[in-house]
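Question (not urgent): is this output format expected?
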Amino acid sequence: MRYGIFIFMVLGLMAIQGGILAPFGLSHFGNLALVFVVMVLTISDRSENLYLALIAGLLMDFASGLLLGTFVVCMLAVFGFTYLFVKLFIQRTADRKLVLLSSVLLNTIVLSLCFCALEQLAAHFHLPANTDWHNILGRKLLLDLAANAILTYPIYWLYVFMEKLQYRFERI
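Got this back:
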């Protein structure tokens, strides 16, 4: 049941970003699905978080139209970084919201770096890679950091709603 709710939430956030924010010109800034996945990885202690990151990466790959597997590898990098950042370096007694915000911001940087590295690797093998990585690691990264910082806490409340919904379905 957790996978179904998770897939529904990621698809819903991708639809919001691509459908509702697009007419306002805001669909290219921030990544709602990334914020949600990082939130689940940071807060949850479940063993299936790797599968959730893979599912989100696959859904992002299907929606992006880029080389298949790009976002899967990027979400694996996000999973690995989050595991190292939260599980090994951050104590559980630390301020949860500050850890969440810093995890989202650092993972935004990790996703951008991983994406640029994979696009450069694709260009090296003469695969279609038409990404301007100077723009991605410059202006777009700053705008993504700002947008993800602003959207972290509204998506946190969505995560709390998802956990309550999952608890209700488990009781049935």
